[in-house]
Amino acid sequence: MSLKTRENPIDAEWRAIFGPRHEPARVIKKRTRHPTIPVNHPTKKAFRKGMIRARLPLMSDQLTHLDVTPEVIRVAEYPFAIEYQRVRDEGEFVTRTRVLDLAVLMSDGRVFVIDYEPINIQRRKGFQRVEARTRGLVEALEKKDATYLLLDECSIHLQPRWGNVCEIWKHAHEKGQHPGIAEIRHQIINGALPATIGQLMRRVSPNAMTSRFAHERPEAAMAKGEFNPTYTAVLQLAAAGKVRLDYSKPFDIHSIVTRKV
To answer: How far is CA 46 from CA 52, 83, 104, 112, in A?
Structure first.
């Protein structure tokens, strides 16, 4: 894995964080009382067993966004504890230490470090205090050649994008899925685009899936009306960065599929 063309200690540190030997700076234990609700989030973009122990549901929800964003190539939970300076109301500088929630490696080598905090908790702490902490963390992360973000539900759950992200995540490419979906993806990516999902449904083949028990004869197979293989194939191509969809509207048969340049 290469972060950038240059070599320096900062790059080496990020390689270790995004590598297989990274040990999280924080452990969210099971069967322990927590101020929030921890969630196990499966992801193919984390080295550690393909699973992240998110300390709160908001973190898990944003991991869903990252899972279907093709420009994100690796995530690492609780990368390190970092010291930062915060200015008190009376102007005094104080040094604090914080374990950050998530590090994200982009395909162009950029690194984002993200914390998650619901709006009601920020309000309880005081927005001015949170903003002062954020400024301190932004400055501290700049020294590590990374961008700091504090995210809440106002950005993570923004509709209709959030609903579309969940749709793509539900239709993610799985090893055990029907092999016909791979053929449909091939036809879509090698066919004429742009086109609506409805037009692709009529164009590609097979445009329906059937199922039967192993002991039954092939002619006993029944069409699965609740499952549309073309829709699944389109969403998988979007997650892989092969096609583009408009996230500003809920996905349906009228959604336009364009080729990603």
So the answer is: 7, 25, 10, 15
